[in-house]
Amino acid sequence: MPRRRRAAEFDQAVAEFFMCIALDEARRGVGRTSPNPAVGAILVKGGRVVSRGHHRKAGSAHAEVVAIDAAGPRARGADLYTTLEPCDHFGRTPPCTQAILQAGVRRVVYASSDPNPLVNGRGLRRLARAGVKVIGGVLSAEADRLNRPFFKLIRERRPYVTLKVAATLDGQIATASGDSRWVSGPEARRRVHELRDRVDAVLVGAGTVERDNPRLTTRLPGGGGRNPCRVVVDSRLRTSPRRKLFTKGSGTRVVVATLARATSPKARRLAAAGAEVWTLPARKGRVDLRALVARLGREGYAHLLVEGGAEVFGAFLEGKLADELWLFVAPKLAGAGLGWAGGPAVKAMEKARAVKSLCCERVGDDLLVRADL
Questions:
Q1: Annotated catalytic residue: which of 16, 25, 64, 361?
Q2: How far is CA 184 from CA 191, 227, 319, 328, in A?
């Protein structure tokens, strides 16, 4: 615990210490708040955390209000640390600035600025005019990374897209016969379920559904986890309504994106199995993925996980629609099989697409390579 400072002082190291606690609180809401951001807040008084809170879901109290309510009278004269600047508008909940001023908070320290035009600096100006000291940018890079899906949705009106690939050491996602069970080990598969628990939607192609018959649900130890919306790209409606994907009881939407009319016999059979059929524009004879991600954005989905197959991966890469790559590399050699990165080949190495922020970690026997695209 950092030593106490005089009220007038601002110590960057102390601020970062407390902001780390607020960020931990914010992480508790990741995957639960869309189309809102994941936000954490704590109140600090006399060098001690007196309360904490996070935004639990859209429509519920914001993190700052949760922390203030938990503090009660101890909020007066306290410092509020929040991972995102407080809002100053009425939405599904009252403005956070109102609660901050009524509680008598003396100082607000925030990490990220909010690009939402309804927020962007308005609350900060109101607090400053009321005499509350406002300090921003503390651990902003960490906070910005936490809410990349929200920022993508606000700025570009589409979800942040993560490609998740499981491949052998020689780059194959399936053998020559099409077998892909299992490329990666149990620890990597558990990690994927943890990722599904934090995203809003998961997408595969019709070929993956027919070949692997996946459920695309979240299955964590102890039965916990939240199921994302499940999306199938199926231009010609090849998907059988008898696939596991359509098993009732998952509690989430199943969307089939197609070029076919929603009134066609195949579409009606899928609808009877519980699917929503979205008829979308064509691009090169297939579903226009840009139109699909735009529709998902309008539906409020901030984070889309793409799980295959090769043709779908290639289309997202070719269309520059992918933001991040999670590549699980298994210590196996499959020889001639199915490579994961479909799409047009690059003729010159100097034209190969570079990735950024490359990092690697061991996950069981596999290697997880993460990169920004």
A1: 64
A2: 11, 21, 27, 7
